[in-house]
């Protein structure tokens, strides 16, 4: 609630607002599946949330689905019973019913859009040095705005705390936390090579990543605070976060809340 950009994203066209609830619920379901001796209830819950995520925003959330399947195949998550598996698949497919009906009533509008994106405009994924660099800068801009808008030093520092410790600090993450970390980095890695949609890429594609980023940033700040030599990084992030967002919120409420930006 203190991040001005989090508040802005949560009310953007009233469309993706629920995703800031559904993503933590998805992580909670994963945790319950991982630790529960009988995860029969939580697999349908996870399937339902994965499907609902696609209603809120699809660009990053679509990659949660194959990632979940891979975690299950490689036994990082316990296998459900056959009955629970089919119930979960049924619930997931049920969440897609509105899009299917909409597509049938509008002469394949969704199907044609997907087909055009993945077949008619050239390859959807590939490596382009300039695009790769631009995408990394967009990531920096996106996560900077979540923490302290336009203060890129703070944004870079926040990204370091969120992304790098699991790669370089042994036993930094428990096994279940490693699963959450994969849900943070895998979509970002995949989208680095995404060249579809005529080369267009918008920051709202990363809305579903934002809550997971916030969780790992918080963990990074706690860990750095417990190391005296690294406390300065936490202090910088905290001061710029509070100062910048307090200023933005003050200006927002001081105005008459009129105009298209509100």
List the helices and strands and how they pair.
Blueprint: H1 4-10, H2 19-35, H3 42-56, H4 64-73, H5 82-95, H6 97-105, H7 109-120, H8 129-148, H9 152-163, H10 165-168, H11 175-192, H12 210-225, H13 231-254
Helix pairs in contact: 2-3, 3-5, 8-9, 9-12, 9-13, 12-13
In short:
This protein has 262 residues and is mostly helical.
- The total count of helices amounts to 13
The span between the termini is 17 Å
Major sheet: none
Please tally the β strands and state the result: 0
Which term fits the overall shape?
Answer: globular
- Radius of gyration over all CA atoms, rounded: 20 Å
Note down, in words, how this protein is organized:
- This protein has helices spanning 4-10, 19-35, 42-56, 64-73, 82-95, 97-105, 109-120, 129-148, 152-163, 165-168, 175-192, 210-225, 231-254.
- The chain has 262 residues and is mostly helical.
- The mean pLDDT is 85.
What features would you highlight for this structure?
13 helices; mainly alpha; 262 residues; globular
């Amino acid at each position: 609630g203190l991040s001005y950009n989090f508040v802005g994203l949560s009310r953007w066209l009233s469309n993706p607002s629920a995703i800031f609830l559904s993503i933590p619920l998805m992580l909670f379901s994963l945790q319950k599946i991982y630790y529960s001796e009988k995860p029969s209830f939580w697999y349908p819950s996870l399937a339902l949330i994965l499907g609902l995520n696609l209603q809120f925003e699809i660009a990053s959330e679509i990659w949660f689905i194959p990632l979940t399947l891979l975690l299950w195949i490689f036994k990082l998550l316990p296998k459900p019973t056959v009955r629970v598996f089919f119930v979960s698949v049924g619930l997931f497919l049920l969440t897609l019913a509105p899009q299917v009906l909409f597509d049938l009533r509008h002469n394949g509008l969704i199907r044609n859009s997907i087909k055009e994106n993945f077949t008619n405009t050239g390859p959807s994924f590939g490596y382009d040095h300039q695009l790769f660099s631009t995408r990394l800068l967009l990531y920096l801009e996106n996560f900077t705005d979540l923490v302290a808008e336009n203060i890129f030093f703070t944004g870079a520092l926040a990204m370091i705390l969120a992304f790098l410790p699991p790669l370089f600090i042994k036993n930094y993450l428990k096994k279940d936390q490693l699963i959450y970390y994969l849900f943070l980095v895998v979509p970002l890695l995949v989208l680095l090579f995404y060249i579809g949609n005529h080369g267009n890429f918008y920051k709202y594609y990363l809305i579903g990543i934002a809550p997971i980023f916030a969780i790992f940033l918080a963990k990074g700040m706690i860990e750095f605070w417990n190391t005296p030599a690294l406390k300065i990084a936490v202090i910088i992030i905290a001061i710029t976060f509070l100062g910048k967002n307090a200023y933005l919120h003050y200006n927002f409420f001081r105005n008459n809340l009129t105009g298209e930006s509100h």
